[in-house]
From TrEMBL:
InterPro entries: Acyl-CoA_Oxase/DH_mid-dom_sf (IPR046373), AcylCo_DH-like_C (IPR036250), AcylCoA_DH/oxidase_NM_dom_sf (IPR009100), HpaB/PvcC/4-BUDH (IPR004925), HpaB/PvcC/4-BUDH_C (IPR024719), HpaB/PvcC/4-BUDH_N (IPR024674)
Gene Ontology MF: a single term: oxidoreductase activity, acting on the CH-CH group of donors
Protein name as annotated: 4-hydroxybutyryl-CoA dehydratase
Residue span, HpaB/PvcC/4-BUDH N-terminal domain: 5-274
Keyword flag Oxidoreductase: yes
Length: 500
């Protein structure tokens, strides 16, 4: 089977030789042992273990018609709405196991996007070189169960200028040399989730382009362990606690990271190039990918919401207020918001459509954008309610070191005690978990900016929703003469560029 265990994934990371990874200005030799990156390795590892764990293997495995074997779902090409539903459910379940972002979704969405885009170019224009290269790459990924990152967001320079207009020509990743055996690329991608702990990275265009931007309209895949690749890991809230490597404060459990991915004249062989100077297809590429990724947020963010609601309820029980009406009301509101995000993602999945003659299952674009737009708002409200329930100690609790000081521990156990049946240490552990989950990149900032900022979803919703159609419906009911042709569609939605 094309399946690796979590331990095999970790061992594979230790064999890399060329990649340069920097944390806090210093080069990292072994990501599996570095205190800043170990939590990310653990989180990524959970996606491999899920294919073997009894409670997730049914969701985490799928049959691949491309290699005729069972593969990890994180490298699977969706074969129908059921697969898209399984994606959302798996992400929610995995969030219960990790309590953070498990970082493998962007690469997965990139695979499915490339399957559709290369297939559509072959169908529309008869050019099969891209799809043939991609299918061979897909087989390689599935047989080896590779950990993939997806890199879409360029550094962008001056936001009002197109790639070709930038004063810094490398503000978008571009081709600087074309050779017989491949291309040479230069530039950087920003905010790349999990980038330091993957086997390979798939690079994608970040926006619609014009013919003048052709050198920037590229998509390719390379091992992270490729000469000329540099990774600079970004900072997060309370990240220095990782160096403490404590049992409570030092993030001993799983966590995520993001980073800058820099290409310094990196060579990419032609067999790894899936999209080159295809500026006409760049906008559709971004649309297909973005909607896949927006749909997925329903799973991971509702799963993290479950963790936050659980921690809030646990703290309320330890303080003896879990049954109070105002606490019950807050918890109910949190559950409502959480399930609303999840429900929208399931709707986007069940209402999927096929973009290729032979497959290419894509999410419902309206419901995918609604899902992500809910995610830009509801996690902040869920967190606010959680902080309300937890109390001020969420931001002022004594440290783990204080708790382990033999002189202080008896006093802290006495004065942090709530309901007697619960040890004070349990309260501290839940406070730290709630702090690290609810005030995090993975739950808050990523919810706003991941897969596009809120305005991107609003523009998509505006384009898809047919205001003229609903005006005709209203006019007809109001007795105003209007020419309204028979329409079998229930939803007043226009086709997206991808569907066209």
């Amino acid at each position: 089977m094309g399946l690796r265990t979590g331990d095999q994934y970790v061992e594979g990371l230790r064999k890399r030789k060329h990649v340069e990874i920097y944390v806090m200005g210093k080069r990292v030799e072994d990501v599996t042992a570095h205190p800043f990156l170990k939590p990310s390795v653990k989180s990524f590892k959970a996606t491999f273990d899920a294919a073997f764990d009894e409670d997730t293997r049914g969701l985490a495995r799928a049959y691949s018609p491309f290699i005729g074997e069972v593969v990890n779902r994180f490298v699977h090409i969706h074969q129908g709405p059921e697969d898209l539903v399984a994606k959302v459910k798996l992400l929610r379940k995995l969030s219960h196991k990790t309590g953070t972002c498990f970082q493998r979704c962007v690469g997965w969405d990139a695979l499915n996007t490339l399957y559709i885009i290369t297939g559509k170019i072959a169908e529309r224009e008869g050019r099969r070189e891209y799809v043939e290269r991609f299918i061979e790459y897909l087989k390689y990924v599935q047989k080896n169960d590779l950990a993939l990152a997806g890199a879409m967001t360029d550094v962008k320079g001056v936001r009002t200028l197109r790639p070709s207009e930038q004063p810094n020509k490398d503000a978008y990743v571009r081709v600087v040399e074309e050779r017989e055996d491949g291309i040479v690329v230069r530039g950087a991608k920003a905010n790349i989730t999990g980038i330091a702990v993957v086997d390979e990275v798939i690079v994608m265009p970040t926006r619609a382009m014009t013919e003048k931007d052709a050198e920037y309209a590229i998509s390719f895949a390379i091992p992270l362990d490729t000469p000329g690749v540099k990774v600079v890991v970004g900072r997060q809230l309370n990240d220095s606690r990782r160096f403490e490597e404590g049992e409570i404060d030092g993030l001993p459990y799983m966590f995520n990271h993001e980073g800058f991915l820099i290409f310094e004249d990196v060579f990419v062989p032609w067999e790894r190039v899936f999209f080159y100077k295809e500026w006409r297809w760049s906008g559709v590429f971004v649309e297909v990918f973005s909607n896949y990724h927006r749909q997925g947020y329903a799973g991971c963010k509702s799963g993290l919401g479950d963790v936050i609601i659980g921690a809030s309820y646990g703290l309320a029980r330890r303080l003896g207020v879990a049954d109070k009406p105002h606490i019950q009301e807050k918890l109910t509101e949190m559950a409502f918001l959480n399930e609303t995000m999840y429900s929208a993602g399931l709707a986007a999945s069940w209402e999927a459509r096929k973009l290729l003659r032979d497959g290419g299952w894509w999410v419902n674009p309206m419901y995918a954008n609604v899902t992500k737009h809910l995610v830009t708002r509801f996690p902040y409200e869920i967190s606010r309610l959680a902080h309300d329930i937890a109390g001020g100690l969420l931001g002022t609790a004594p440290s783990e070191a204080d708790f382990k000081n033999p002189e202080l521990r008896p006093l802290l156990e006495k004065y942090l005690q709530g309901v007697p049946e619960f040890p004070a240490e349990e309260r501290l552990r839940l406070l730290r978990l709630l702090e690290n989950t609810s005030i995090s990149v993975a739950y808050l900032i990523e919810s706003v900016h991941g897969a596009g900022s809120p305005q991107a979803q609003r523009l998509s919703i505006q384009r898809v929703y047919d205001f003229q159609k609903v005006e005709q419906i209203a006019s007809s009911l109001a007795g105003i003469k209007t020419a309204m042709a028979p329409d079998l569609k229930v939803e007043p939605h226009r086709q997206t560029d991808s569907e066209k």
